[in-house]
Amino acid sequence: MFFRNVRSFGELTICCKPELIKLGSSRLGCGRLKLHNSFHNSRRGAKRPRLEPNPLDNLSYESTPLNSKGLLKPFLFTVGVSTASLVGCVIWEYENLRTHAASLLRKPGTWLNSQQKKYSTHSKSEVNQLTKWWNSLRPSDKVFYPIFAANLLVFGAWRIRSLQPFMVKYFCSNPGGAAKCIPMVLSTFSHYSPFHLAANMYVLYSFMPAAVASLGKEQFVAMYLSAGVISSFASVLYKVLLNQPGLSLGASGAIMSVLSFVCLQYPDTRLSIIFLPMYTFAAGSAIKAIMAIDLAGVVLGWRFFDHAAHLGGALFGIVWCYWGGQHVWGNRDKFLQYYHNFRKDTR
């Protein structure tokens, strides 16, 4: 999750050098945020003079003084979103199971099936190709593609100049802004830099199959959404405690929870860096090293990544791995029974 610095009233300025956004120096974890601006420069040559001012120049956003009292609403919002994700997951699982059971009960016998196939007038060519493609996907892909589409849609919205003040307000987590809560979720689907988006989606796509195979798609979605808002709150908490206001965006916090979960579930799995495939290392050692780097970034105040959000997401993945399966999902049978009785009473 990248983030940027805020001065007294927070000005965002773009350098003349290619695709850099300069920030103040007091921002948590990141003094400068490098954001690609190729979209805005694509219509003008490198040596041609600028004919009109860039609307991102001197774009200001509000940054009120930070204090601990302002943490109450983000904390309650974090608890609410996490609880809603868990409840929604259990209901989703129940409805999927109920639909599957109902379809099996309605399934005709073998003889009736053969007669229907014999006299059927519908050919295979009439089947919707998009439906066939969707049904052929792995369960993890059926979760990844909607997440990727949402991130891609928000990435495209950043390219519309008239929307950028709106994007800064609602798609960047800002503890000093008027909108504190909603951006904690929306910012996890927000990327300005193409490299930032590509890197996050590549890591998510690589580790999602193992996570979905272990959790199921319903539990994975609940974990991902909860991790996104919890990592955002970890970033907000760190900024408030150190009085270092600034903006944060990116899915890295949520992805770190997926990474830590998979590495703890399969610690002996051999991983490698994409540019150095000849060197491999155990997944369990990898997550320890990554978390150690983020911890050092938090303690030493490194200013390139939002290390607090990364660390919060990784810790949540560990908690989900060791505690969630035993307690949260162990108690879901009680909720399922309550929901089942509720459905019977409302019929």
Tell me what portion of residues adopts beta-strand conformation: 5-15%
Arrangement of strands in the largest sheet:
3-2-4
How many whole angstroms does the radius of gyration measure?
23 Å
Report the helical percentage: 55-70%
- End-to-end separation in angstroms reads 46 Å
Shape: globular
Element-by-element helix/strand order: EEEHEHHHHHHHHEHEEHHH
What would the average pLDDT be, to the nearest integer? Answer: 75
Number of helices: 13
Biggest sheet descriptor? 3 strands, antiparallel
What does this structure look like?
By secondary structure, the chain is mainly alpha-helical. Helix content is 59%, strand content 8%. It is built from 13 helices and seven strands. It has helices at 38-41, 72-106, 110-119, 129-136, 139-158, 164-170, 182-186, 194-215, 217-242, 252-265, 283-300, 307-328, 332-346, and strands at 2-5, 11-14, 21-22, 59-60, 246-249, 270-273, 276-282. The strands form three sheets. A three-stranded antiparallel β-sheet has the order 3-2-4, with no helix packed on it. Strand 2 and strand 3 form a beta hairpin. Helix 8 (194-215) crosses helix 9 (217-242). The radius of gyration is 23 Å and the shape is globular. The chain starts with a strand and ends with a helix.
